[in-house]
Structure formats: C-alpha cells, structure tokens
Write a structure and sequence with these properties.
Oligomer: single chain
Helix content: 25-40%
Largest sheet: 4 strands, antiparallel
Distance between the termini: 9 Å
Number of helices: 3
Shape: globular
Radius of gyration: 13 Å
Number of domains: 1
Strand order of the largest sheet: 2-3-1-4
Strand content: 25-35%
CATH topology: Alpha-Beta Plaits
Order of helices and strands: EHEEHHE
C-alpha cells in the first residue's frame, strides 16, 4: 500500500492549456523512470479552464523525496513561470486508505 502522496495544483496561463497538457505528458514519461513513484496522474479539472492537478503516490518518504528532487520536479520548477499563472501548490499527503 502507498503510504505517502503528493497533490499539486496548477493553473495554466491564458492560452497555454495545450502547452501545459503537452508538458504534463512529458512529465509522465519522466515519472515512469522513478522506481519509487508508484502512481502518477495528471488531470484537468472539469468545468474550470486551465486548472490541473497532479497526484502521485509512494511507499515511503524516501521515495517521495527522490521524486521531489528528481528530473520531473526540476522540469516543473523550470517551466512554472512560462506555463502557469501562479506558483504550483504542492501538498504533502499521508495515504490512509486505498482500493
């Protein structure tokens, strides 16, 4: 069972949705290279223009830290000003139940 997770809230700049979606697809490829990242999902919030969420899970805190200091996170930081109207909001979560 995953014990740790991250939830990242993103808001695309106007007219940047297509670029954000392409960027998130590239991020998924980077996350797949991380053995400690159990799941990684990027989604668009229905009914809210330019609003996205990333949700990923980890067995332990060490794997989450590897992810936060890895290539995918570095790319997110590097492109944040270009793509997003506000800084990404990152929430550290503890998983209490899963299916």
């Amino acid at each position: 069972m995953a014990k740790f997770a991250l939830l990242v809230e993103l808001k695309a700049k106007p007219e940047k949705e297509a670029q954000v979606e392409a960027f998130l697809k590239k991020e998924a490829v980077l996350a797949k290279k991380e053995p400690g990242t159990l799941t990684w999902h990027a989604a668009k919030v229905e009914g809210e223009n330019g609003v996205y969420r990333i949700f990923d899970t980890f067995h332990d805190e060490a794997a989450r830290e590897v992810h936060l200091n890895g290539e995918a996170a570095a790319e997110l930081v590097a492109h944040a000003e270009e793509l997003f109207s506000e800084a990404p909001k990152v929430y550290r979560l503890q998983v209490i139940a899963e299916k």
